[in-house]
UniProtKB/TrEMBL annotation:
One of its GO terms (cellular component) is cytoplasm. Residues 32-42 have a biased composition (Basic residues). PROSITE patterns: DH_2 (PS50010). It comes from Oryzias melastigma (Marine medaka). Keywords: SH3 domain. GO terms for molecular function: guanyl-nucleotide exchange factor activity. Residues 1-126, 664-693 are annotated as: Disordered. Residues 127-312 form the DH domain. Gene3D superfamilies: Arfaptin homology (AH) domain/BAR domain (1.20.1270.60), Dbl homology (DH) domain (1.20.900.10), SH3 Domains (2.30.30.40). InterPro entries: AH/BAR_dom_sf (IPR027267), DBL_dom_sf (IPR035899), DH_dom (IPR000219), Dynamin-Rho_GEF (IPR051492), SH3-like_dom_sf (IPR036028), SH3_domain (IPR001452). This is Rho guanine nucleotide exchange factor (GEF) 37. SUPFAM superfamilies: BAR/IMD domain-like (SSF103657), DBL homology domain (DH-domain) (SSF48065), SH3-domain (SSF50044). Pfam families: RhoGEF (PF00621), SH3_2 (PF07653).
């Protein structure tokens, strides 16, 4: 039997938004607020039946249903039990509380995030402030340490006896470093570190002083290698090093320093710390800060500054290595020879031969060639100018040594002679010595210093040429070894160094030359003014002071020319007299040869051989020194006047004309002397030999000569002479026949022997 099924009433399905069944999603503040309002509205709908029912409730004429009626009606429509409805209401209230708690949590998280950002920003500001203060305080401490080393320690070291060698060169360029650090601190002290404008002031100050910082530090760092060498030299002397350590420790006990390098290395470390400090400040600075871009530029500038200083130091090290001039002996050069050096020099020589023969092209650098050519012109000009100045000073010194005013010319009664003597004395004692001293100080010493400076560039140019030959040999290779790459780097470094520094050197050297030439002109202008002032004080006492300017200059020109002609004639006479051979007694055979040649050719053609002659061609004669010949012809068959045809007393042949001088026969009576001679009675008792007991010598022809320079007697058998003093030669040799000593007569004194080779200028 069939059981009838239960018929379900038709149901009405309504779709209700349920917060609990909605999928989770990110809810913003506005979404949360709208969702909360929507749920409240839905709650009101469920309680009050929707907006339509509210309108019905509000209408007075309509009957408002009760809540139970509405619930019952809704339950019937939805087929929902009262328990089900209560459960839905509780779920809605729980969802609303959950949303409110989530909102509160999100607000708390947002507040904490903002607080953390503010705290992080504050920490960055504090770190920035600490970095700025570190830069300023470390700069101040750094400057104080430098002042301590240069003032206290250096002054104490200078008081040591003896002071350490090269002490000043250890502190070279440190004053420039201190000056630029002082200027940087003075700019930074214009604002306090907490001032908002301090960061901008820091960047502007560093950028303004960057060129001065680079100039000061690059010279100090380039010289620091020399500082370490000097300090190592001090360490080799234990006593000196103990004193240095004691002074350093007593001067700075708070830093526990034990050597000079503790202080002298500080500039090397300081210049490298600037980029680190500036980058640290930049790291803790907000990119939105107004001075951030300027701070970034300052940090980049400090890094570039360090790179340029390092590059300059590398160039200086290469220059110092190759510009030195080594004075090596042959043994030292032989020790340095090895297979590597021989192969290197052979390759250079081969490459040079290829250049000269055109087998290989040269590397042409027009810029360097122009600089090198200008340097060569400067080098030659400086050396030539220095040689001329030294000759000028030598002649001036010779003029000052010739004191003509000290000679007595028996003209004391004449006013003009007295005036000339006073003028000459003033010139020699005041005007000319002052001029000479200024010449040596202002021109000669700078020229010598400039000449010494030429050695470095000259050596670098020569070394650059050698490295260029090495570079050309390996230039075409695809891959280079380490040594070959070092050769390439060295050549490029030398080439760049010369291209950068040689124009500056040429410019400074040329400027110094022009300055010295101007100084030379000013010195002569001052000399003229001093001499004019001197002569004006004696103008009325001079004999030609009444003449007009044109007449005076005409008289002065004629007087100078006449004096020059007379002096030239006197010099020629003295030269001929000095060049005349000393008259020596002839042997009997030479006497017979002389008589034979004189009778055949005459006395005017007799010549004497000055040195031994060995014939090297046909018809040449072999003659000995002192042999007499007669001139037959003044040229050979080809017309060569350097070979004379002579008669040697039976032998005839050719002799070089330079080996012959005219023969002067000894005369019994000497030529008259312009100086007063001694009376005859005073000469008889002064003619004695070296030994008092020896018999008197036979009478010899005597002649008068002048002493070429002063001679001081070294014993009783010698006599002292002054330069230019006249003497009479009584015997041209000593008792042993040595012609280097003469028996002379000087005023009232007579010396048995005087070295004619050293003290006599010749006969008159």
């Amino acid at each position: 039997m069939e059981v009838p099924r239960r018929l379900h009433p038709p149901t009405l399905t309504l779709t209700l938004a349920n917060a609990a069944s909605a999928p989770p999603c990110a809810i913003g503040p506005k979404q949360k607020s709208s969702r909360r309002n929507g749920m409240r509205q839905r709650s009101r709908l469920e309680k009050h039946g929707g907006p339509e029912e509210e309108e019905e409730e509000a209408a007075p004429e309509e009957k408002v249903p009760s809540e139970e009626d509405l619930l019952e009606e809704t339950s019937q429509l939805l087929d929902i039990s009262p328990a089900r409805h209560s459960r839905l209401s509780s779920e809605d209230s729980v969802s609303e509380e959950t949303l409110e708690s989530e909102e509160m949590l999100e607000e708390e998280a947002r507040r904490k995030s903002e607080e953390e950002k503010a705290a992080a920003k504050e920490r960055e500001a504090q770190r920035q402030q600490m970095s700025v203060e570190e830069l300023v305080q470390s700069e101040r401490s750094y400057l104080r340490m430098l002042e301590l080393s240069t003032v206290t320690i250096r002054s104490s070291l200078q008081k040591l006896q003896p002071p350490p060698a090269g002490l000043d060169s250890m502190f070279l360029y440190i004053q420039e470093v201190m000056d630029v650090s002082t200027r940087l601190l003075s700019k930074l002290d214009q604002f306090q570190p907490g001032d908002p404008r301090f960061l901008e002031n820091l960047c502007e100050s560093f950028l303004a002083l960057s060129s001065d910082i680079e100039a000061a530090y690059k010279e100090y760092l380039a010289n620091y290698t020399h500082v370490t060498v000097l300090e190592n030299g001090y360490k080799q002397k234990e006593a000196l090093w103990r004193e240095i350590v004691t002074i350093v420790k007593s001067a700075a006990p708070e830093v526990n320093a034990s050597s000079l390098s503790f202080f002298l290395v500080m500039p090397v470390q300081r210049i490298a710390r600037y980029p680190l400090l500036l980058q640290t400040i930049q790291k803790h600075t907000d990119p939105a800060h107004p001075a951030f871009a300027l701070l970034e530029q300052t940090a980049h500038t400090s890094v570039a500054l360090n790179c340029r200083i390092n590059e300059y130091k590398r160039f200086r090290e290469v220059a110092d290595k190759y510009k030195k001039t080594e004075n090596l002996t042959i043994r030292d050069k032989m020790v340095r020879l090895n297979t590597h050096s021989i192969a290197k020099k052979t390759a250079r020589f081969s490459q040079h031969i290829k250049h000269e023969t055109g087998m290989a092209p040269k590397v042409v650098d027009e810029e360097f060639d122009a600089l090198e050519g200008f340097f060569a012109v400067l080098d030659h000009g400086i050396l030539q100018l220095l040689e001329n100045v030294e000759t000028y000073l030598l002649n001036l010194q010779g003029f000052l040594e010739c004191r003509t005013e000290e000679f007595d010319f028996d003209m004391d009664g004449e006013k003009s002679a007295v005036s000339y003597k006073e003028i000459t004395t003033a010139l020699r004692q005041w005007v000319l010595p002052t001029f000479e001293r200024r010449m040596r100080t202002l021109i000669h010493k700078p020229l010598c210093a400039l000449r010494d400076l030429l050695v470095g560039p000259r050596n670098l140019i020569r070394k650059r040429f050698h490295k260029l030959l090495d570079y050309e040999v390996i230039e075409g290779k695809a891959s280079l070894t380490f040594d070959e790459q070092e050769v390439v780097n060295t050549y490029k470094t030398l080439n760049t160094l010369l291209l950068n520094e040689l124009p500056r050197f040429n410019g400074v050297a040329l400027q110094m030359i022009w300055s010295m030439l101007g100084t030379f002109s000013c010195l002569h202008k001052d000399l003229t003014a001093d001499m004019e002032q001197l002569f004006q004080s004696f103008a009325q006492q001079l004999p030609h002071s009444f003449l007009s300017d044109s007449a005076f200059w005409e008289w002065a020109e004629s007087a100078v020319l006449d004096g020059a002609r007379n002096l030239q004639a006197l010099c020629q006479t003295v030269e001929e007299t000095l060049n005349a051979p000393a008259v020596q007694p002839l042997s009997p055979s030479s006497q017979r040869c002389l008589q034979q040649l004189t009778g055949k050719h005459g006395s005017g053609k007799i010549y004497q051989v000055t040195s031994s002659v060995v014939g090297s061609r046909d018809l040449d004669l072999n003659l000995t020194k002192g042999e007499l010949v007669a001139i037959i012809s003044g040229a050979d068959t080809r017309g060569d006047k350097r070979r004379w045809l002579v008669d040697a007393g039976g032998r005839r042949g050719y002799v070089a004309s330079s080996k012959l001088v005219r023969y002067h026969q000894a005369a019994e009576n000497p030529p008259p002397s312009p100086h007063p001679s001694l009376p005859e009675s005073s000469t008889g008792n002064r003619r004695y030999s070296y030994s008092p007991g020896a018999p008197p010598l036979t009478s010899q022809p005597c002649f008068q000569v002048w002493a070429a320079y002063s001679f001081t007697a070294r014993g009783n058998h010698e006599v002292s002479l002054q330069a230019g003093q006249p003497v009479r030669v009584l015997e041209p040799h000593d008792k042993r026949g040595n012609p280097e000593w003469n028996l002379v007569e000087v005023s009232l004194q007579c010396s048995p022997e005087l070295q004619s080779r050293a003290a006599l200028s010749g006969g008159v």
